[in-house]
């Protein structure tokens, strides 16, 4: 008698953007309470999740590989062993990032949880690439990939616009962590945003930009495989996940 499957196969999904292929890799997910959110009515946030048939906050953790001109780049390195056991299955940078996360003074002022999950985790995840790190502000950072600063969530938070031929994709990083809530209430932020006000302003600019341009988006915390479109609905926004396809040329 055959055994029933006990777990999912690894989450990997490829999407062609012109001559560039972007691979979404699921690093798992994080479940938690909504009390880490800021600038939002939590009862309304809970109702949004209930209406979306999501009884709790489930935050996908995604990383992306970019295959361009015979080279491969990774956007984000996953969460490693620092967060929940449902994430950390995957074994990049604006110049403001190392200046902040490698600042011993800033780390000393943080609480114990922040020191472990943000400062120490960031240092460990950057360490394998430290001797090959190239810092930037903006502009093209990889063939067909342009860095778009979206400072606020972190001091160097950056989105990446991938363009090839007539196709574009905006990998918007950590613009949202709870998609259902933050698209409905763009002011809603997270307790771990380093600058709540700047993060909200960056989020609204990004929302307006991708809606106006009709550009395909992906993000570290959109539900896997993350490729979606965003549409404006009054003062709020709605995400429309792209249909899953099995061949790269079918899109």
Describe this structure in words.
The protein has 251 residues and is an alpha+beta fold. It has a single domain, classed as Ribonuclease Z/Hydroxyacylglutathione hydrolase-like (Metallo-beta-lactamase, Chain A), CATH 3.60.15.10. Helix content is 24%, strand content 30%. The strands form four sheets. It has a five-stranded mixed β-sheet, with no helix packed on it. The radius of gyration is 18 Å and the shape is globular. The relative contact order is 0.17. The mean pLDDT is 88.
Jot down its keywords.
alpha+beta, Metallo-beta-lactamase, Chain A, 5-stranded mixed beta sheet, 4-stranded antiparallel beta sheet, 24% helix
Summarize the structure.
With 251 residues, the chain is an alpha+beta fold. The chain has helices at residues 42-51, 96-101, 104-109, 112-126, 179-184, 196-213; strands spanning 12-17, 20-32, 37-38, 57-68, 71-75, 139-142, 145-149, 158-164, 167-171, 189-190, 216-218, 228-233, 236-241.
